[in-house]
Design brief:
By secondary structure, the protein is an alpha/beta fold. It contains 11 helices and 10 strands. The chain has a single domain, classed as NADP-dependent oxidoreductase domain (TIM Barrel, Alpha-Beta Barrel), CATH 3.20.20.100. It is about 40% helix and about 15% strand. It has an 8-stranded parallel barrel, surrounded by 6 helices. Strands 1-2 form a two-stranded antiparallel sheet. The longest helix has 16 residues.
Length: about 300
């Protein structure tokens, strides 16, 4: 496993990291999730990404229970807040009240004294960015959070957060967590340059397009698959994308790697990316994807990929 700095910070994270979205506490039961987490850590992954909304706190509990077997300082643990956790009108968003109360609940569920990274899981149009920035700064000063970041924020929103933090001499956001993969390159235009300008890292999610870039949907819709059951993948399951993935799959076979490995290696070719966050429903799937950390795609292959994806 290779490690990269998270932007200009001194924090180093595994360039392939493990995420708990739609898996732990959801489609993957605890008795199956724990061995996957252990295998990831023992294979060199040090960054595990969670959120309070993942299975309404269950993912945090499962990860917390499993990491008790390891030295806490060896791990980089993140969580996020924004989405409603109950019917309580204040149990959502990025207000000071919700931030201060959410961190306590998250730390209790994970069973840790601090988070290495705390993400604002979306932009909150109902809360002034300055309020959010100052609350996050307070958490850093209290030692409950070491670094804070944004997730799926626009460039202008990130710029405003940095500006407000600078105005109050507060801790700046250190990282953005956007969606990024071969079929969704929207962050290349503004998000990547903005994060570079501010020295922020990029921990990207959905590097395999929710499974589309594994090639599993090339011929048919597997019963019980994410494409058949999740609303998140359906917008990407177009005839045009399927044709592209079929061509990419043939290319990956011609160079002796899997489609998943090529998709991850393609992301990691960019120095601006701090890590690609993968999901895993089995140890075999996890181990296959970890190989991507050691794969370097040559210029000829990269040009072929570009000609396919446009």
């Amino acid at each position: 496993m290779k490690y990269r700095r998270m932007g200009n910070s001194g924090l180093k994270i595994s360039e392939i990291s493990l995420g708990a979205w739609l898996t732990f506490g959801g489609t993957v039961a605890e008795e199956k999730a724990a061995p996957i987490i252990r295998s990831a850590i023992e294979s060199g992954i040090n960054f595990i990404d969670i959120s309070d909304i993942y299975s309404k706190g269950e993912a945090e509990k499962i990860v917390g229970k499993t990491i008790k077997d390891y030295k806490r300082s060896d791990l980089v643990i993140s969580s996020k807040l924004f989405w409603p956790m109950s019917e309580n009108i204040n149990d959502r968003g990025l207000s000071r009240k919700h931030i201060m109360e959410s961190i306590e609940s998250t730390l209790k569920r994970i069973g840790t004294d601090y988070l290495d990274i705390y993400f604002c899981h979306r932009f909150d149009p109902e809360t002034e960015i300055e309020e959010t920035v100052r609350a996050m700064d307070d958490l850093v000063h209290q030692g409950k959070v070491l670094y804070w970041g944004t997730s799926v924020w626009e460039a202008n929103q990130i710029n405003q957060a940095v500006s407000d933090a600078s105005k109050h001499d507060a801790y700046l956001p250190s990282v953005e967590q956007p969606r990024y993969n071969m079929l969704d390159r929207h962050i290349e235009a503004e998000i990547i340059p903005t994060c570079n300008k501010h020295g922020m890292g990029l921990t990207v999610w959905s590097p395999l397009g929710q499974g589309l870039l594994t090639g599993k949907y090339n011929n048919e819709m597997p019963e019980g698959s994410r494409g058949a059951t999740s609303m998140w993948l359906k917008p990407s399951l177009t005839d045009e994308n399927i044709v592209k993935v079929k061509k990419l799959t043939e290319l990956s076979k011609s160079i002796g790697i899997t489609m998943s490995q090529m998709a991850l290696a393609w992301i990691l070719k960019r120095d601006e990316i701090s890590c690609a966050i993968i999901g895993a429903t089995s140890i075999a799937q996890l181990q296959e994807n970890l190989i991507a950390s050691d794969i370097g795609l040559d210029e000829k292959t990269l040009n072929k990929i570009d000609s396919i994806i446009g």
